[in-house]
Amino acid sequence: MTTQHAAHLYVPGDQPDKLQKANALSLASIVVDLEDAVVPDRKDIALDALPDTVETLAGVSVWVRINQGERGLADLDRILRLPGIDGVWVPKAEPGPFFEEVVERVARESEMSVGVLIESARGYVHRHDLLSPTIVTQVQLGEYDFRADTGFGPLTSDSFSHLTPLRTEIVMSAIAHGIEEIVGIVSADFTDLETFEKSTQLLFDTGHTSRACIHPSQVNIVNTVATPTEKDIAWARKTLELFAENEKAGKGAYSDADGEMADKATVRRAERILARAGD
Predict the structure, then answer these.
(1) Closest residue by Cα to residue 141 from 155, 58, 132
(2) Backbone angles phi, psi at 35, to 5 degrees
(3) DSSP state letter for 93
(4) What pTM, to 2 d.p., does this model score?
(5) Does residue 176 surpass a pLDDT of 80?
(6) Mean pLDDT for the chain overall
(7) Cα–Cα–Cα angle for 16, 22, 28, rounded to 5 degrees
(8) Three-class SS of residue 90?
(9) Segment holding 28, helix H or strand E
(10) DSSP state for residue 246 in the 8-state scheme
(11) Between 111 and 243, where is the model more confident?
């Protein structure tokens, strides 16, 4: 069984010590944050450090969250000249000249991908437009900004479920556009790991394929939840065996080992589990 690397860790671009520590973790990617995690008078410092940062992080998938507007385009100018960066996250993504220019330039001048952070009502309403470019390969709901933009209360364990329908819509939009990396929301509370584990399980149960983190303590939890258990793997293998036997007997639908109806849809679930397990 292969442990899944399903955590994307955001690290401030002006804090090289944290970036070096992050490099030792089992991550789907490190997201070098040039936006909200860096105060305005240190953004030039973070941008100037980017070449050394990327070189330090060799061997791990590196993404960069750029700023918005002219500042974001300046970030992009530097990023497009650097090797070793796999993609850029566009914050507070909304249809318009800025988003279109980022997508066009990345597609034209590099082999990188684009991640879409939906953080406003307008971004949510236009999610299909934002996710339609083929160069967009990842999506995430930036829930803290989204809640601030829409007037929803703060994200807590009690309010977590309030935006479940919207998260589900984003998952459906992503799947419809062939986007496989659907990143679960950040939790700023890195002390209550029990609640974080429960919410991570809920996110994976509702179609998310990974989760964003802001602290190393969250990383192993995400990877553990993303990795199928031995029980899941045994079920998946048995399901494929039963399907093959029943298909050979001319049965498309049949009763599984628990007496429940099973068919090709059950097989697809089993295949996904085994793919995640590296089986």
Answers:
(1) 155
(2) -100, -110
(3) -
(4) 0.89
(5) yes
(6) 90
(7) 130
(8) strand
(9) none
(10) H
(11) 111
d(CA 49, CA 54): 9
Residues 101, 102, 108, 114: what is their CA dihedral angle, to the nearest 10 degrees?
A: -150
In which element (H, E) is residue 239 found? Answer: helix 230-248
Residue 3 region, left (φ>0) first, then alpha (ψ -120 to 50), else beta? beta
pLDDT at 243 over 90: no
- DSSP lists the bridge partners of residue 192 as none
Q: Answer yes or no: are the C-beta atoms of 230 and 26 closer than 8 Å.
A: no
For residue 235, report the phi and psi dihedrals to the nearest 5 degrees: -60, -45
Q: Is the pLDDT of residue 256 over 70?
A: no
8 A C-beta contact, residue 37 and residue 26: no
Structure-block tokens of residue 264: 């090709």
Which pair of tokens denotes residue 77? 């100018």
| 239 Cβ contact list (under 8 Å, min separation 6) | 256, 262, 266, 267, 269, 270
The least confident of 78-87, 134-143, 239-248 is: 239-248
Strand 261-262 relative to strand 254-255: parallel, antiparallel, unpaired? Answer: antiparallel
Contact at 8 Å (CB) between 100 and 90? no
24 forms beta bridges with none
**Geometric angle at alpha carbon 233, from 277 and 225, rounded to 5°:** 60
pLDDT for position 227: 86
- Residue 204, number of CB atoms within 10 A of its CB: 19
pLDDT for 189-242, tens place per residue?
999 999 999 999 999 999 999 999 999 999 999 999 998 777 877 777 877 777
Q: Which helix (H) or strand (E) holds 14?
A: none
DSSP annotation of 41 reads G
Q: Is the pLDDT of residue 95 over 80?
A: yes
For each of the domains in the chain, give its residue range(s) and CATH number, in order of start: 7-226 (3.20.20.60), 230-277 (no CATH)
